[in-house]
Design brief:
The protein has 82 residues and is mainly alpha-helical. The protein is built from 6 helices and no strands.
Length: 82
């Protein structure tokens, strides 16, 4: 339904190809979006939540690439309970 509503079902382009070079901020501005936001620091998130994560959550966060750690913390079961 989403593709159809946005024109994807009719063969229209849903996404523009970002311009070559330039920062993500420039690419977002070229697409008509606001400036890109830097992800929150994962160490600060852990400190503010008290570090009360299960062993599984802690392992998943540590194994993830740095740019995804904040998302994993905010999507963790421990954060959702708060």
């Amino acid at each position: 339904r989403v593709k159809f509503k946005n024109g994807g079902g009719a063969g229209a382009k849903m996404y523009e190809i970002p311009p070559e070079g330039g920062s993500p901020k420039d690419q977002n501005l070229a697409r008509g979006r606001g400036p890109a936001m830097e992800p929150p620091d994962s160490a600060q998130l852990v400190a503010s939540l008290g570090g009360n994560f299960s062993a599984n959550t802690r392992e998943a966060i540590e194994a993830a690439p740095a740019q995804l750690r904040s998302a994993l913390i905010l999507g963790s079961p421990e954060f959702m309970v708060r």
